[in-house]
Amino acid sequence: MSQDNSLCALPEKIDLERLSEQDAVYETKLNHEIMTRLSDACEEIEEPALVKLHFYKDLQGLCTLEGEISCKLKLICERCGKPFSTKIIAPFCVTSDKEKAAELKIEDRLDIVDLDEDGLFNLYAFIEDTLLLELPTVARHENEDECDVKGTSWTYKDENAEEALNPFAVLKDLKGKLNN
């Protein structure tokens, strides 16, 4: 039986096994006040994160959490230094049954999550971690026309610096001395 709780508030810590047994489905929003590490990693969280969750027992009996998190963020372009908006979409499929997943040799198919000492799963930390992992390594405008800095060839060399010596030039000089 599926339970659909549209835009409900979920607690920070949940019983993953109980929700998996109930085949629970949730769609909710998570406000930026809860995601302090994500706030620190970007210029601004423009909209609450939209979180779609499906808790279920898979065919092997693993307590599984599958879903998608999307969030609109404002980042600073590392090319031009100006802010731009982007949408991060993070699909996931996880289980807390590490031993059973290893026994079935499917631990590479699912990410393994840890439960706390009370057997509860920290949902808010997981959502924030998942979004943080989806941040681009180099933040830049997706559309090059929007960026003030044009071109695809990037150099970080100081034009005034002397050209680096060719490492083989020393060998050439040494060879010349040996031949004399």
What coarse outline follows from CA principal-axis ratios?
A: flat
Number of separate helices? 5
Q: Biggest sheet, in brief?
A: 7 strands, mixed
Strand fraction band?
25-35%
Low-confidence runs of at least 5 consecutive residues: 1-8
Mean pLDDT across residues: 81
Number of domains: 1
Distance between the termini: 90 Å
As a whole number of angstroms, the C-alpha radius of gyration is 25 Å
Characterization of this structure:
This protein has helices at about 15-20, 35-40, 100-105, 125-135, 165-180, and strands spanning about 5, 15, 25-30, 45, 50-55, 65-75, 85-95, 110, 120. With about 180 residues, the chain is of the alpha+beta class. The strands form two sheets. Strands 1, 3, 4, 5, 6, 7 and 8 form a seven-stranded mixed beta sheet that branches. Strands 2-9 form a two-stranded antiparallel sheet. β5 (about 50-55) and β6 form a beta hairpin. The N and C termini lie far apart (about 90 Å).
